[in-house]
């Protein structure tokens, strides 16, 4: 025996129907508005977030600069901390020459497996403080894209939830209206004709 096929009615909320109520029309407009806001607003939120993240990463690359340094302690026996941008980095004491010629020391993330006295590259911010290496252009672009996608999904989720809340409230109004109508019509069903 063949499977029963179901005819799908597209745009059924918009079609003229004597059983259609005002809440059905309101629900149709809510659905249209929600999907329009998700499509347009989600796209704009994602693009704006990705653009802001990309600008932030570009600013980090402009602000930070590399400085040659010397390891003040060995990193060959150190265990990677997981704090760095790359695995295999450890926090170690380094020594470098500041722009005024003075010698400075501090702790920063460096590659493991080096002896004391090895030359390494460290990163400084605009104030002369030790900092992490800024993300490379490709990594920054990928992270900005992920942040933009996350923002778009978050916006879409919130909009969808707001639409579902509005539809739930409409359903509650329908139930209340049906209950009132049933109180009027229900008792008439028990009467017998004479």
From TrEMBL:
Ranges of biased composition (kind: Polar residues): 73-88
* Region Disordered, residue ranges: 71-111
Xref: PANTHER family: MEMBRANE PROTEIN RV1733C-RELATED (PTHR42305:SF1)
Identification of the protein by name: Membrane protein SCJ1.26
- Give the organism the record lists: Streptomyces cellulosae
Give the classification, highest ranks.
Bacteria, Bacillati, Actinomycetota, Actinomycetes, Kitasatosporales
């Amino acid at each position: 025996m063949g499977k029963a096929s179901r005819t799908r009615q597209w745009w059924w909320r918009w079609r003229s129907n004597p059983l259609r109520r005002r809440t059905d029309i309101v629900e149709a407009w809510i659905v249209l508005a929600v999907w329009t806001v998700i499509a347009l607003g989600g796209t704009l939120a994602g693009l704006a977030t990705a653009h802001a993240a990309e600008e932030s990463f570009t600013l980090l690359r402009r602000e930070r600069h590399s400085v040659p340094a010397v390891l003040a302690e060995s990193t060959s026996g150190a265990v990677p901390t997981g704090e760095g941008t790359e695995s295999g980095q450890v926090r170690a004491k380094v020594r470098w020459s500041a722009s005024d010629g003075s010698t400075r020391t501090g702790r920063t993330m460096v590659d493991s497996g080096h002896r004391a006295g090895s030359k390494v590259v460290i990163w400084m911010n605009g104030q002369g403080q030790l900092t992490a290496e800024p993300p490379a252009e490709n990594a920054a672009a990928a992270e900005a894209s992920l942040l933009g996608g996350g923002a778009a999904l978050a916006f879409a989720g919130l909009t969808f939830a707001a639409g579902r809340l509005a539809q739930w409230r409409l359903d509650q109004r329908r139930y209340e209206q049906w209950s009132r109508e049933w109180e009027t019509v229900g008792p008439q069903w028990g009467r017998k004709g004479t």
